[in-house]
Each structure stands twice: as C-alpha cells, then as structure tokens.
Amino acid sequence: MFPEKKGSLKRKKQFTCPSCGKSFNSKSFMDVHVNIHQTIYSRKKSLTYTKWAKRFTKVSSLKRHQMIHKGQKPFQCTGCNKSFTHFSSLKTHQMIHRGQKPFKCSECNKSFTRLSNLKIHQMIHGIKKPFPCIECNTSFTDQSTLKKHQKIHSRQKSFTCTVCNKSFAWLSNLKRHQMIHGGKKPFTCIECNKSFTQSSHLKRHQMIHSGQKPFTCAECNKSFTRSLHLKTHQMIHSGQKPFTCIECNKSFTVPSSLKKHQRIHNGQKPFICTECNKNFTWLSDLKIHQMIHSGEKPFICIECNKCFTRSLNLKRHQMIHSGHKPFTCTDCNKSFSYLLNLKRHQMIHSGEKPYICIECNKRFTQSSDLKKHYMIHSGVKPFTCTDCNKSFKQSSHLRVHQRIHSDPNPFMCTECNKSFTRKSDLKRHNMIHSRKISYD
Question: Nearest-CA neighbor of 86 among 94, 75, 96, 70?
C-alpha cells in the first residue's frame, strides 16, 4: 500500500500539507491526511447558517444557534419567569435563587455561579490584565470587558428603549432599564420585603440589615459596602478630581457626578413624579419625593423615634443627640455637624453667591434658596394641605400650617405657658422675659 522503503523514514519529510503545513515522508500519507481536511470542510459547509455565514460542526449546534435569531426561549425559570434559549443557561440562572455558588476562589474564598466568572476574578489576584484600551490605557482581564469599555469612548449606544427612547451601550443595561417601565422587581429582601430589579441591588441593600461593610480605606479605616464607593472615597485623600465641567470648571472624582452636575447648567430634569408631575434632575431626588405621597419614612432614630426618608437625614439628626460638630469655621470659630453646612456658612464671609435667578438676577448662596425664589416668578405651589386644600411653595410652610389642624400651638413658653405655632415665634416671645430680667 505504501511503496516507500523503511529507510525512507530517515530521509527529509518532503511532502507538505497545503492546508496546515504538516510534513510527511510519503505522498500517500499526505493524501490520506489531506482527505481529512476536505471531509471536515464539506461537513462544515453543509452546516452553514446562511444569514450570518456562521459555521458549525454539529447539526444540534446549528439548531441551538438558530434559536437566537428566531428569539426562541423555551426554558423558563419558575422563580421569576425569566426565559432562556438554552437549558444550561436556565440551570446557571437558577443558582441565583438558590444562592448556590459552587466555584470558590482559593485566594479570598469569594464564590461564583459560573466557572468563567471565577477565572476572570482570579486575574485580580494575579494582576493579569492583558487587554489594554488604546484610548485611556485602562487594562482588562478579558476581551469582552474591553469591548464593552470601548463603547464609552465611541459613545456608541446601539440599544434604544421603545418606551422612552433612552439609549444604552449594552443590551443588558437596556433590559434592566425596561424593568422600570414594566414595574418588574423579581428580587425581594426577606428582611423587609423591599423588591429590586437586579440581584446586585438586592445584595447591596441586604448589607444595610447585616451592617456588612467589607471594603475598608487604608488611610482612615472608613468602611464601605461597595468597592466603587471605596475607590471614590480614596480620591479625597489623593485630591484627585479628573473630571472637569467645561461650563464652570468644577471638578469631580467620578464621571457620573460630572454628568449629574451638568444638568444644572442645561436645566435638564428627566425624572417625573407620576403623582404630581413634578420634575427632578436626579432619580434619587424623585425617589425621596415619592415618599411624601406614600408617607414612607424607613429610617428611625433610636433616641427619639423620629422618622426620616433618607439615611443621610437620620445621620444628621443623630448629631443633635451626640452634639458632635467636627467642622469649624476658621474665620469665626463657629462649628458645624456637616462639612456642607460649613461651606455654606463660609460664603457669608467670602460674600460668594454663585446661584443667579435668570428672571431678576438676584443671587443666592445655595441652589435650594434659588429654587424657592423661582416659585415667586412661576407662582407654583406644589405642596397642598389634605385637610383644607391650601397650597404652599415650600414643604416646611405646609408642615407649619398643618399644625393648625392637629396641634395649633405646640411650642409653649416655660415662663408664662403661652403657646405658639412656630418655634421662631416662641424664641421672639422669650426675649420679652429676658428683657424683664435685665430691667429688674
């Protein structure tokens, strides 16, 4: 069958395969080898999906692939009704509901539902990031993450929401966004029954109940629930603020803060309350506002049981009980509980009033004061009393008014038992008694 002599095996391999470059001692051996390439090629050709010219070695693989183009998702999760093209994808997804994470990192014991996610994570320990971005030199552990990142530079947003026309760089972000319109919140906290659109948001929320803050700053030992918050915080120590507003030259540590800030200049208020049609610059402000309608105040002071819509407001309030005022003005030695209040106060000494009314050019030290002032020009009174339908420009004015219906005079003078609707009126009244004492 093979005419070459045994001695020919020692000779130079002079017959080379044109497809893969492999060499052979005899032409007959090479011909047998070449037939393998031709068989595989003809088989692949018969399994070509003509729409995208993608080829498969198995009929089953082609059929599975065609489901993507047809939009077929026959495998449905009984936990949240999410559908999948492949059964294996459903199995992996179901691990989220069971809390199952079989793939554990030997370095830090962090667990993952997928082996591929574990492998990507393990590169953090080895600091192996072989895929650099040519635009900004940021490196990534895998090529898919690099491709996603590069969309930031190209500003490519291929995926558009059909409801509100908002565009996204990634399909996963569009799907998450669409849950807002659909009202879908499949991930529920077992502690307080609060629901979320994403499992990552639920995990972050659960840290409130557990008090877990695994990310600690090496400079000041302050801890955070998210690594992103730690990185942002560390910029305070380094003084790094790489993102600058072209309108006013104000700098920010993260691009998201810059984007939010720029809405002040362009007047953009994309978030609308469905109850009263009030517009907001930021989604967080809308969520807090909606608590007025729902009456929700989830943050409670353990000292006096006063409730708040925001954890930040609770923290500020708690300083009243502790008397802690760490921020001191260098001009007049007045102390403040918060850095923001100190900065506002320092504007009195500097005479700085950066917020200008476009109607009458009146200046203000705070944006909140400017907003209140705008209502004079617009005549808007968004805060309405549920008892008598009287409207007010400010929520504080509404609260004072509501005392008429409940407790008309909550502030009582300890000297003469006279009562007042406002604390400021009581203070003014107390001056009468102090003057009498000085005259005596």
Answer: 75
